[in-house]
Amino acid sequence: MQVVTTIEEVRAARRATPALSWGLVPTMGALHEGHLSLVRRAREENARVGVSIFVNPTQFNDPTDLVAYPRTLEQDAKLLEAERVDLVWAPPEEEVYPPGFQTTITVGEVAQPLEGAARPGHFQGVATVVAKLFNVFDPNRAYFGQKDAQQVAVIRQMARDLDFDMEIVACPTVREADGLAMSSRNARLNLAERRAATVLYRALIVAVDAWDHGERDADRLRALLQNTLTTERLARVDYVSVADPETMQEISGKARRALLSMAAFIGATRLIDNMLVGDQ
Ligand code: PAF
């Protein structure tokens, strides 16, 4: 496994293998089983696998969140080596955003609600850095976790609009044994908060169960999410949503398919989770 820092080194590796398929897994490091599931999928489907590790400052709307973000490059590299990754790009900030950098990508409606509304500028930062990653690696496929469902929708929209010639692959959310979706943020929870954090999963299960028993009314599904979340004393609801999985616009009336999603603070830690229901 090659670990490199410059754009030129990534391009050289890509140029050396023009006939081979490349899968890219973009990450911000602090890798867990969720990331590794993306790497394994990329390994299965491509001749070469590249992983980027870059804590992208432009997607953090809260500076304390950026400072608190764990940086564990040495440990990440060991995990990636064990997964037989070919190339890791871990650039310093100036390599991605050199002095004088002044271009950003703004994705429209799909990036406005939910995470876009709660974290102003977040998706602009994500779209810009992901476009750069796509240009640097020129992969055949890029892998993202369905846990960040709106991020997947925003990136798909950007890739379509800007004619990136590659497949965007969304992979299922990986969960702890008690249902909590894996996230590098989980490490910030104390013992009581860690127990409380399962309420996001429990709320989704209640709503999915209602869906499976025929509930299609979007307001009633939202109420089930909200009511379950509020049973947990340590949880503070940021939003609950029953939205179209492609456009991210809230559904009114009856749903045929939906992304059930939510964000909630457990103590000071903001967690998100989601599940898809209906024909996708
Ligand atoms: O999902 C993430 O870890 C980040 O948003 C990404 C896609 C690596 C862009 O910085």
Total E-strand runs: 9
The strands making up the biggest β-sheet line up spatially as: 1-4-3-2-5-6
The geometry reads as globular
Number of helices: 11
Which H/E pattern describes the elements? Answer: EHEHEHHEHHHEHEHHHEEE
Distance between the termini: 37 Å
The largest β sheet comes out as: 6 strands, parallel
Residues in helices, as a percent range: 25-40%
Q: Beta-sheet strand percentage?
A: 15-25%
Q: Which ligands accompany this protein?
A: pantoate
Which labels suit this protein?
alpha/beta; binds pantoate
Summarize the structure.
This protein is α/β, with parallel strands linked by helices and 280 residues long. Helix content is 38%, strand content 20%.
How would you characterize this protein structure?
Strands 1-4-3-2-5-6 form a six-stranded parallel beta sheet, sandwiched between helices. Helix 7 crosses helix 8 and helix 10 runs antiparallel to helix 11. It has eleven helices and nine strands. Helices cover 38% and strands 20% of the residues. The longest helix is centred in the middle third of the chain and has 16 residues. It is of the alpha/beta class and 280 residues long. Pantoate (PAF) binds next to strand 2 and helix 7.
Topology:
Layout: E1 2-4, H1 7-15, E2 22-27, H2 33-45, E3 48-53, H3 63-68, H4 73-82, E4 87-89, H5 93-96, H6 115-118, H7 122-137, E5 141-145, H8 149-161, E6 167-171, H9 191-196, H10 199-212, H11 218-229, E7 235-243, E8 257-266, E9 269-278
Parallel strand pairs: 1-4, 2-3, 2-5, 3-4, 5-6
Antiparallel strand pairs: 7-8, 8-9
Helix pairs in contact: 7-8, 10-11
The protein binds pantoate.
Residues 26-28, 56, 59, 126, 129-130, 148, 151 line the site of pantoate.
